[in-house]
Amino acid sequence: MQDGAGRMGCEMGPSALRTAGLVEVLSSLGHAVEDMGAVQAIPVRRVVHGNLALKALPEISAWTSAIAEAAYAASENAMPIFLGGDHSISAGTVSGVARRAAETGRPLFVLWLDAHPDFHTLDTTASGNLHGVPLAYASGQPGFSGYFPDLPAAVDPKRICTMGLRSVDPAERNALNQVGVTVHDMRAIDEHGIAPLLRAFLARVSDEDGLLHVSLDVDFLDPSIAPAVGTTVPGGATFREAHLVMEMLSDSGLVSSLDLVELNPFLDERGRTATLMVDLTASLMGRRIMDRPTRSHSGSF
Hints:
Structural class: alpha/beta
Strand content: 5-15%
Order of helices and strands: HHHEHEHEHEHHEHEH
CATH superfamily: Ureohydrolase domain
Shape: globular
Distance between the termini: 29 Å
Helix content: 25-40%
Number of helices: 10
Strand order of the largest sheet: 1-6-5-2-3-4
């Protein structure tokens, strides 16, 4: 889906990830993989909101319902990997796995790897692009009732860690501070290093016997290594920082679900971003440095 983004192309993301060999790579690492295909949209109902800037609200609301049900079903005795699509899919994926976590009696934590916190509400977004609201919705922030599906279980904002931020609107900044989301922007990463910050968050997940949903947006990465995104923000995570995050997540054994979002193949260079996203997923799923293949690219990482 691409209804939540400001430009077209994200709907081709899942096909690009498949073409880049995601299923084959996961299988080669010893995982049993089932490709469940595309989530099917449900009928759109009329939804009208006072913020006239909102774009595709009825469509995003309908997609959120469908994706939440699919995420809930896929998370039974398996680790689902959700292929996007723009980041609005996470309104459904996070709410779906949060419902599953609540039923198992374990808290759900969320690691949001993104240049943006996506913490706008329907009232505060000025662009009206609804890929900017999923984390606010899934954590139960006000203003979504009657427009988005009711949440069976909201994620506690204090169990959310955003990492890699470098484009945050004032309304989002205020909301993040008020509700207690852990925020590690790129300055914090530059000052402290990415490993200590992530290690502290993972310790919290482990201490509470939590499940961990990871949402990886292409624009978490620096556009010099991942150009295939419609919201490029300079100064993102480097190739090694990104792989280190994935390797640490793998070592932790805590990850229970994963989003791969905002890949726009129309903006890619010979598939390099799709290939990088597959390689990062492989690192999360157990590939080690000595097992990594050599690749040729027109540019260099």
